[in-house]
Each structure stands twice: as C-alpha cells, then as structure tokens.
Amino acid sequence: MAPFIHSPLKTSNTSILTKALFLLPMMAVALPTYSESFTAKRTGQGFTDLTQDFTSSLSNPALLTKFRNDNDVFFSLNIGLMASDKYNVIDTSENIRDNLDVLADDINGMSLQIIQSPEQVKSYNDDLNQQVDNIIADFESIDGKIVKIRNGVNLQIIIPNQLFSFGLFTNQYGRIGGIMDYSENDEKILDDAILSGDLDLEDLESATTALGYSIAEAGFMAGYSAVTHDNYDLSIGAKLKYQRIDLYYNRVPISEFDDDDFEITDDENITNKSGTNIDLGLYINWGAKRQWHAALVTNNLIKKTVHHAEPNLTFTLKSSTSFGLSYQNAWVSLATDIDLTDREQFATITPSKYAGVGAEFRFYEHIQFRLGYRTDLNDVDDDIYTAGIGVSPWEVFAVDIAAFTGDSDSIGAALQLSLKI
Q1: How is domain 12-420 classified at the architecture level of CATH?
Q2: Hey, where are the domains in the chain?
Q3: Which residues of 158-190 are buried (b: 16+ CB within 10 A; e: fewer)?
C-alpha cells in the first residue's frame, strides 16, 4: 500500500495518522450500507420489489412462484451506478496534483533561470507565490469533503414451473467513500521551498483516503408454492450462494493521487473473505382478485466479519430482515418495503435502516412508469427520490431505465435488459 507520509518532520506522522483514523467514521457514515439487488425496476419504484413478480426473485426468492403459465424462461441483466461529489473532490484533487508538478518544476528550475534585474526576481517570486496561493485555496475548498460512489451489476436466469421454480444468479454491489485530508503544514513547506529553491513533493503531508467494500455473489435460488387456498396463496423461497466480501482501504499522498484510487481494484489494498450464505423469502397474496401482497425476506443468515489490519477497520455482514406490502391491479401497483432490522455496517458506525414507497402505472399493457421515495430510518444516509420507465413490447423483450437523486447532489441511474421466452 502507498505510504501514509513522506515528511522530514518526524513528529508529524503520528498526528496525521491520528487525523486520518478520526476521518474514517465520517467516510463510513457516507457509505450507504445495505444489501440488495440493484435493478432498474426496483430503483425506479422507490427500491420496492419484495412483492412484485417472478422477475424480482433476486430480491425475494419466494416470488419465483408468481408467474403466468406462458412464461418459460426469463433472462435479466442489470447495471447501476450512483455518485455524489458535491464539492468536486476528485477533479480538484487531480488539479492540485497537476499544479504541484508545475510548481515543483518551476521552483527546482530556478537555478537555470537567467535573472537580469531585481524586478525579474520579484516577478518570478510573485508568480510562484500565486501558484502556492491557488494550490492552498484548492486544498481548503475540499478539505474534509466526502465523495461517494456506488455500483451494482447482476444477472439472473429463471425457469418457472408449476411444481418447482428455480433460477441461477450472479450479483455484485459495492460502495466506496473518499475524503481529502489537508495538512496546514503543507503551506509552510511550499513557502520554504520557494526560498530554498528546492521542492520535494514527497515532503507534503496532505493525502486522500478511500474506504469501501464490494460484495460478489453467485448461486442458486428456488421457490415453492406451499399453500394454495380459496382465500390466499403462500409461497416460500431460498437462495444458496457463494459470497466474497472485499474490504478496501487506501491512503495516497496528494502528489501521487489518481482517480483510480477511488476504485476497488488494487489487490494490495484489499482484505477479503469468502464463504457460503443463505437468503430466505416468504410471500403471500390474498383478496378476491389476489390484489393484496405481502412478503418477509431475511438475507445473509450466516454472519460474516472482515478485518482490515492497516487502519484497524472491521466490517460486518449480518442477517437483515425486510417486510414488503403492496396493492396491485391491472393498471397500478402501490408498494412499500421496510427494513425491520439494521443492515450491514462498519464497526462502531451506526448502520442504515430503510423504508421506501413506490408506484408503478401501466399503460397499453406494455409501458410502465414508476415513481418512488426512500428514507433512512436511522438518519444515516440521504433521502432518495426515484423515477423510471419500462417498455416491454409483446412482453418478450423489455428495457427498463431508472434514475434517482437525493441530498448532497447524489445522482444515479440503472439499466435493465430482460428477455422472456
């Protein structure tokens, strides 16, 4: 992993490390921490789909029984991304790095300059001082500011059947938060370098810190119609999955900053843990036209804990339970999903707990329009407003697009491609 500091001031290492560890809780709070399938249908409808239909089985395997007799095989590919960089932390950090390179070249090249008059000396120093002022202003504008990035991708293949519906799936979702840690001592280092005519960028103490996790899953899911009654139907479902959790931490000096530092890609900075896990789902519908629907889903029955030794960071993936309720008829679906327990979390950090509401309006049988809203009951994550549209000509091929926005200039989008045979 990249070193924390290359500073000639030996006593400053401890204080900078202490400040970095102090900032970790801020970054962890900035990470939306919840386990879910990232689908465009779910996203557009306020992240509610525990009671929808068999195409949402990745969220509730008991829904595998909710299909029509003419549905044989279903394929679905989903891609989603969310980002929040209200203060342009990434772009500004890159500008600082580039401007520092220019400043270092100018300062270290002073001895090669042909100075003919005091006025030229003053002009040259004024230019260097202005460069330092601009760099420090950029540092201060993003000091302690947080950037958040979230992604998700999944693929599912479902084969519904009257006796035993099943499917195969892969699912990955990740979150990462980054923060600029500016050291005020850097201004003195830059000013002194102008006087000495020697600047070593490795002496600077400011750095960016990135913290995040990625969860990848692959497995088998099945659903069974347990009770068929005149007044209600009850289904149960389960997902057996192999799971890998990657925990990422990286601290990079500002002189070496790259936007790739906010991506979970460098194995040198990753601690991971793998194993099997289980999700369980329950689904019931009732009413004269089976218009009422309810669900109960528990994810990750087996608790997983990953510890990253470098910053003494612990992440826990624990069992979580959610409840869903909806009313559905031929042209509208009104739904709500509520977390009954907290989600996965970093140690000592308050976890998230969500409640969402959403609506889907169906037009001409093959066009769907969705709206939704989700809030964090623990007041950790931002409120999110969602919208989406789906087009499914002949109910064979479908394209679903969703977008959402929230506080702190959070924006995101999701795309889902589906095929029914």
Answers
A1: Beta Barrel (2.40)
A2: 12-420
A3: bbbeeeebbbebbbbbbbbbbbbbbbebbbebb
